[in-house]
Design a protein that fits this description.
The complex is a heterodimer of chains A (499) and B (168).
Chain A: H1 2-14, H2 17-35, H3 41-52, H4 57-82, H5 91-102, H6 106-140, H7 144-160, H8 166-180, E1 183-184, E2 191-192, H9 206-224, H10 243-265, H11 270-285, H12 298-313, H13 315-321, H14 327-338, H15 346-350, H16 352-373, H17 377-384, H18 388-407, H19 410-428, H20 434-456, H21 463-466, H22 468-485, H23 487-498
Antiparallel strand pairs in A: 1-2
Helix pairs in contact in A: 1-16, 2-4, 2-16, 3-4, 3-9, 3-14, 3-18, 4-5, 4-6, 4-12, 4-14, 4-16, 5-6, 5-12, 6-10, 6-12, 6-13, 6-16, 7-8, 7-20, 7-22, 8-20, 9-18, 9-19, 10-11, 10-12, 11-12, 14-20, 18-19
Chain B: H1 2-7, H2 10-29, H3 44-66, H4 79-99, H5 101-113, H6 121-142
The chains are: A mainly alpha (499), B mainly alpha (168).
Amino acid sequence: MDLLSDLAIGFSTALDPVNLLYCFVGVLLGTAIGVLPGLGPVATIAMLLPLTFGLDPVSALIMLAGIYYGAQYGGSTTAILINLPGESSSVVTAIDGYQMAKKGRAGAALATAALGSFFAGTVATILLAVAAPSLASAALRFGPTEYFSLMVLGLVASVALASGSLIKAIAMIVVGLLLGLVGTDVDSGVERFTFDMPELMDGMNFVALSMGVFGVGEILRNIEHEHTRSVMVKRVSGLMLTREELKRIVGPVLRGTGLGSILGILPGGGAMLSSFAAYALEKRVSPNSAEFGQGAIEGVAAPESANNAGAQTSFIPMLTLGIPSNPVMALMIGAMIIQGITPGPNVVTDEPKLFWGMITSMWIGNVMLVLLNLPLIGLWVRVLTIPYHVLFPAIIAFCSIGAYSVSNSTFDVYIMAIFGLVGYLLIKLDFEPAPLLLGFVLGPMLEENLRRAMLLSRGDPLVFVTHPLSLSLLVAALALIVMVVLPGIRAKREEAFSE
Amino acid sequence: MLITLIEKPRELIAGLLIIALGAGFFLSSQNLAFGTAIRMGPGYFPTILSALLVLLGIGITLLALRHPSDGAAFGKVAWRAVVLVLGSTLLFGLTLRGLGLAPTVVIVVLLAASASQYVRLRTALPLAICLAAFCCLVFIKGLGVPLPLTGPWLAVEFWWPATSTHSQ
């Protein structure tokens, strides 16, 4: 029973009082910040990353994972209570969740979200524990050729499955890849795009970059549309579900979990796509589909289970292949690199404590979410009412100190400011900033694998199509692009996103 | 068509910007050794990527020209917010070492807050002071970031007492 002994390592790591504490702090901070307006999980994690640098790698990643699903959950709370989804993955939760809140069933909606998330989190964690090691050992046999093609597929899929213009998203990837190359070339020792600035020799600071684009840029956008928000629900009561409600959520929770678990593994999938797909599916199959949009409890249960399942399973490609499927995972990979761990299939075998500790702590974190959030809901309601003009100056201050503290350099603060402007410009020009971050993290790895593949093949670029595995990965990437570009499917895709 | 392009220039600007960016990267890649496919020089991958970026930019531009009505207005720019928020982060970098963390946070928070139309001094000032205290506690005391509370520009340079007896 390998799995059991592995899980035992995991539990002994995750239940270590120090790690338990960081898991708790992560979940608490994540939820609190997730509840605050205008800060999504990416900005939250980027802002809190510097806090984890002093910790050992296992505790740091456990805390970051806690922040992630805490922020995720906090986003659902705002979606239900004030119809303002904290992040994209709870957009659909707002539709029926807010209607339930209006009818005085906010408590039931929150409880449904919590229970659905917990169930989905448990299933997805088991899936992660079972699937990840075998996937990693398969990936260990990959040569540089396969790795290059896999990364290309990952990058293409991450934009094909997102909404918005495909060509602009691909352009963002390429910009990210180029920015990732800034600094000293590992192979030749030559400085690239550093403009003779010694601060850029080690590459652009990725914490500063992501805080700029996702934190500062987002603030500028929010101030532009600043308005005061009103919380209609002053007190939340009636957390208990009725027997009939319980019966109604069983199906949606199961379907949402299944769908979310699968979609989460796909690059570019993750929490957002999972929740949209689960809502659309439930609307079709539910016997109460007429109630959707008017406060159907299924409309909360399905997307909330799906986004939590998707959030957990999106760790699978990150932990086993070292390939981020969404910007949050890109930040996780960045955090691992800062901690001196090389992401990739070796993590499972070389860092069993990290790998299994993280997996089991995810489940423990989910238990904490339920125990923490339902009793603390009164507190979260009060946090919700903090006005944005109190909040954003604080975010600016935290991000500035955070950027500085990464390497005690004011240069990184300026980098953050510049990328804040870049982020705002990208929003203005309708560019998705997420692919930029994925490209930025993968840039050096992509070049390294391309170099090695070409060296092995003696400079023959056909190697990418003569290796069968590499070929099938590239064909899959091409098929995705064709699918998105073809007009018939494009119309369907837009329909799916507008639902 | 020209009028729609002028009214809704967003996509056109986006395309031209990407072309310019690609061209910039392409030109500065030319100072780097290209190498051969077998032994790629530092310029190989950047050259390919920046050429690809230029092509993508041309694609975006052509799409914008072909379907000008798909574009959108650039939208109003919140200049005041841009200047105040970015200015406050730049100021943070400029004054941090000289003024020390506490005064810097107060100034930065007040400056950033003034970007909002809702902010009033009597709420912003206490907020700034509380945040300064909080930041000093978390970053200097808690995380041990080597920064003075008040810096050399002020008459008294003051460090957190605990940082001298660094026990952790």
